[in-house]
Structures are given as structure tokens and as C-alpha cells.
UniProtKB/TrEMBL annotation:
UniProtKB keywords: Membrane, Transmembrane, Transmembrane helix, Transport
Residues annotated as signal peptide: none
Gene Ontology molecular function: any one: amino acid transmembrane transporter activity
Protein name: SLC7A4
Organism: Acanthosepion pharaonis
Length: 542
């Protein structure tokens, strides 16, 4: 997580969207990430498989929704790798005062101004992307050991930036009205900043993607997911605080915020340390994305939702080489042809969509009878007919469900059994329908809040009426969910305060998605259409 997002996105968020209140933007985005991490942690403990969100949705909601989320996860990881490679190239170009960009335009020519592609082909980003995937193809252990080293160096540099920033801090940059104060763009700008800087948190699902390679996923996945987001949020808030206290928000340089901030205070030697740390941080993000992508592709290909050859694992390296080659090339091409800002927005909406469906699935799973779960579960009492070898193999897997399930899971609570209509539903079905309707009402409520804030401020009758209507519907369907018995059979980590926390996660993610531009929604629609068409063709062939 601590990579391109914090080094590259922070400058844009502070200068163009939120000002010093970017600190709150990172806190808000961190809250959204934490809620999603809790949901991922529950599924990561239940379903210790490669594929992350795809695997969770596949076993909970079925093949079609599983494909939609998996296709978005692949998009997220392709764009994550491409955007980080682009950031790596941009950071290197900054060290050479733009010589790489200018030289490329002189030698090859410009691609022209467009909202759909970059103004020049970034061959350095393409090369860095290919090298990263080639490195990942060698071995998972080699990749992670190298990544651990540069991550440690990156954290040391971040700590140095924070300490140095507080040494040059000036509180007047927050409180002086002449400099815009703490909220120069208002609360709306703070929320827009949260939507943009959410990119900086993308990466924690890489923990869940690697669950199949964990020794004790039921324990380590929740600890790593929740602990990772907590530590990273603390780092982001401190480093953003440091930057906004060093220089006024209007003087922040978008392309190189930290080096230029210290340069304006006359401390030029610090910028070289920061430049090295930037490359370290971006390299960790690059390897993390390149590591996760082929594992998601492998999982979908193994289930027959992508071409089978993509699931072939090399005997020597124990990595899906074909998946790495195909999607590594695609990531490289996107890094070469698309601008950083375009990649980040496209990446954010695909990721938020996947996070929303995961939160939805947590509620569905919690109110689903054990008999309807599609997990291949093993009970606490081993089968007496299983031979010694099979028992030894099975012992490596963790029991995730109690041996005796509760017959009331998914049914109305005992005291509410006489409620008309609801008592007619089969166990679990009413909760699924209520969750679906609640999400639809959340969409309407979020639209009113995001696009009708001015009308609400003016107390226009129609805006207030819609706000009250959608709010009431959300509360009503939430209460319908709560009226049912939760499935408490699972022995592994469970998200606390269900359905409250997953519902909050969905609502926050929906608001963040609506803060993104219409062109980003259009790109997502095109990507989903291509994916559904490919799935249809694949099913016909098979």
C-alpha cells in the first residue's frame, strides 16, 4: 500500500481538491479501507484460496457475480501495476528534469491531447512493468523477500520525511485565512479528496489474494489485513500533516510534492533522500500488484471462467507463467499509453465496486443457513473412513465451521415469527432481498447527498423529501436484516457488528464512486461489457 499512492496522489489531493483537510480525506479513505479490510479478513479466513474477492463472491453469490467481481479485480490489478509503473517512470523523469519525456516526444512524436490516452508513449514505464512481471515469474518466495527489504527502506524514508517536516512546521498554513485556512475547498472538497486518495490504500487485498500460500490463513489473514490498514493510515495522516505544515497548500508541487516542499524552505539535500525513498515505495507497490494479478487470473481460469491455459503452473518456479506473460504485457501496454490520473480514477472505481460486493456478500453469508453454503467445509469430527494420508493432508486445513449447525440460521428471530410476509420466505432469502433493496436505496441516498447538496442546503422540498424517503427505506431494510438469526457456525475470524459495518462500508464506497467522473463510469461500463461478452463466448466454446 505504501507506494505510488502516497508519493504521487498526495500532491494532487492537497493542491486541487482538499487543501490541508486532505488529512481528513486520508482518514475517511482509511475508514472505508478498514471496513473493507474487515470484510476481506472474514472471507480470507473462511476461503483460504487464491483469487481474493473473486473466490469469495464465487462461493457466496455464484458464477455470474463471481465473474463480474473477478473481472474487476483483474482490472484493478492491471491498472494498479500500470499506474505504479507510470509513477516510477515519472519519478525518474523528475530526477532528470523531464529529459525522458522530452526526449521521447522528440524521437517518436506526440500522441496528441486526449482524455483517453497519454500525450506520449512511456517506454520506460512499459519496460519497468515487464521487468517486474519477469521477476515475479521466478518465484513467490524470492519476490517477497526482495519486497520486504525495499519496504523496510521505504518505511525508514517515510519516517524521516515525517520528522523533518515537523521540524519545519508552521501552523499558520492551516489557520491563516489569506492562505485558505484548513478547508479551502469546503467539506465537499474533502470528500472528493477521499475518493481520489483511496488509491493509496489499494493493496491490502493482496494479502487475501495470497491466502493459499499462507501457513495459517485463519489467523494471519485477519491480523495482516487489519494491522496493515491501521499502520498505513497512521503513516498517511502523519506525512500529510507534515507536508501541509511545511508549505501552503497552494505551493504544493503535484509531480514531486515532498522534494519541492523542502526545496522551498532551502533544504535541498533532503530531496535526494526523498527521491530514493519514492523509488523504493513505488517499487514495492509495483511488485505487490504484479504478484497479485496472476494469482487472480489463475483462480478464475481454474474455475473455467477464463482460458484454461492461464491456470497452468510452472513446475520449477511454481508460478502461473502464462498468466504472468499475457497480463504482464497488457499492463505494460496500459502503462505506456495512459496517463497516471486516468489510470488512478479507472482503478479506484473498479476497486470500490469489488469492495462493495464483498461487503454485500458478508451480510449474505452471515444470514445464510449452513446447508446452503457453497464452501467445502470440514466439521470438527474427522471421518473415520478417511485413511491416514488423507487425514494428515486434511489436518493442514483449518476447521472453519462447528460440527453442529443451528436450525434457525437465516430464519426470523423467535419473537418475530408472526410478522406477515417475512415468515413466508425460506431461510436466508429474506435477508438477501432486504440487502439488495437496501443497496438500491443507498444508491438513491448517496446520489442526493453527492449531487443535490446545494438543493438540500436551500431546503428544496423535493430534495428533502427524497432524502427522508431513501433514508427511511435504508433503515427499514436494515431492520428486516437484523430481524433474522445470524449464522454463528463459523469458527474463524468474523467481521464484528454485522450488518452495521458491512452496510457502512457499502454506503461509503458508493459515495466515493459517485465522486468520480462520468468518463470513468463510461470506461467501467465498456470494461464490464467486454468481460461479459468474453464470458459468453467462453461458455459457448466449452
Amino acid at each position: 500500500m505504501v507506494g505510488a499512492g502516497i508519493y504521487v496522489t498526495t500532491g494532487t489531493v492537497i493542491k486541487n481538491l482538499a487543501g490541508p483537510s486532505a488529512i481528513l480525506s486520508y482518514l475517511f479513505a482509511g475508514l472505508a479501507a478498514m471496513l473493507s479490510a474487515l470484510c476481506y479478513a472474514e472471507f480470507g479466513a473462511h476461503v483460504p484460496k487464491a483469487g481474493s474477492a473473486y473466490s469469495y463472491i464465487f462461493v457466496t453469490l455464484g458464477e455470474v457475480w463471481g465473474f463480474m467481481v473477478g473481472w474487476n479485480v483483474i482490472l484493478e490489478q492491471i491498472l494498479g501495476t500500470a499506474s505504479v509503473a507510470r509513477a516510477w517512470s515519472g519519478s525518474m523523469d523528475t530526477l532528470f528534469n523531464g529529459a525522458i519525456r522530452n526526449g521521447t516526444i522528440t524521437a517518436v512524436g506526440s500522441l496528441g491531447e486526449s482524455n483517453w490516452h497519454s500525450d506520449y508513449p512511456d517506454f520506460l514505464a512499459f519496460g519497468v512493468c515487464i521487468v517486474s512481471f519477469a521477476f515475479v515469474a521466478t518465484s513467490a518466495k524470492v519476490t517477497l523477500r526482495f519486497n520486504n527489504i525495499i519496504t523496510l527502506l521505504n518505511v525508514l524514508v517515510l519516517a524521516f520525511i515525517i520528522i523533518a517536516g515537523f521540524c519545519f512546521a508552521d501552523v499558520k498554513h492551516w489557520i491563516d485565512p489569506a492562505e485558505g485556512g484548513f478547508f479551502p475547498y469546503g467539506i465537499s472538497g474533502t470528500f472528493s479528496g477521499a475518493a481520489a486518495c483511496f488509491f493509496a490504500y489499494i493493496g491490502f487485498e493482496g494479502i487475501a489474494t495470497s491466502a493459499e500460500e499462507a501457513t495459517n490463513p485463519a489467523k494471519s489473514i485477519p491480523i495482516a489485513s487489519i494491522g496493515g490498514v491501521t499502520v498505513v493510515t497512521l503513516f498517511y495522516v502523519l506525512i500529510c500533516t507534515s507536508l501541509t505544515l511545511v508549505v501552503p497548500y497552494s505551493d504544493v508541487d503535484i509531480s514531486a510534492p515532498y522534494p519541492q516542499a523542502f526545496a522551498t524552505r532551502g533544504v535541498y539535500w533532503i530531496q535526494y533522500i526523498i527521491a530514493i525513498g519514492t523509488l523504493f515505495g513505488i517499487s514495492t507497490s509495483l511488485l505487490g500488484s504484479a504478484f497479485s494479478l496472476p494469482r487472480s487470473v489463475y483462480s478464475m481460469a481454474s474455475d473455467g471462467l477464463l482460458f484454461r491455459f492461464l491456470s497452468n503452473v510452472n513446475e520449477r518456479t511454481q508460478t502461473p507463467v502464462a498468466a504472468i506473460a499475457v497480463f504482464g504485457l497488457l499492463s505494460g501496454l496500459m502503462a505506456m499509453l495512459f496517463e497516471m490520473e486516468t489510470l488512478v480514477e479507472f482503478l479506484s472505481i473498479g476497486t470500490l465496486f469489488a469492495y462493495t460486493i464483498v461487503a454485500f456478500s458478508v451480510i449474505v453469508l452471515r444470514y445464510m443457513p449452513v446447508t446452503k453454503c457453497q464452501f467445502k467445509l470440514r466439521t470438527e469430527e474427522p471421518d473415520a473412513e478417511v485413511d491416514e494420508v488423507s487425514s494428515e493432508s486434511a489436518s493442514e486445513k483449518h476447521n472453519i465451521v462447528r460440527s453442529k449447525s443451528h436450525d434457525d440460521f437465516g430464519r426470523l428471530r423467535q419473537s418475530l415469527r408472526n410478522i406477515p410476509v417475512l415468515r413466508q420466505f425460506d431461510p436466508g432469502n429474506a435477508a438477501i432481498l432486504a440487502t439488495t433493496f437496501m443497496v438500491c436505496c443507498m444508491l438513491g441516498l448517496a446520489a442526493i447527498i453527492v449531487f443535490g447538496m446545494e438543493n438540500l442546503s436551500n431546503r428544496d422540498w423535493w430534495a428533502v423529501t427524497l432524502l427522508v424517503f431513501f433514508s427511511t427505506c435504508v433503515v427499514f431494510f436494515y431492520m428486516v436484516i437484523v430481524a433474522h438469526e445470524q449464522n454463528s457456525a463459523f469458527l474463524t475470524f468474523q467481521t464484528p457488528l454485522v450488518p452495521l459495518l458491512p452496510s457502512a462500508s457499502m454506503f461509503i464506497n458508493i459515495i466515493l464512486m459517485m465522486k468520480l467522473g462520468s468518463l470513468t463510469w463510461m470506461r467501467l461500463g465498456i470494461w464490464m461489457a467486454v468481460g461479459m461478452y468474453a464470458m459468453f463466448i467462453l461458455k459457448l466454446v466449452n
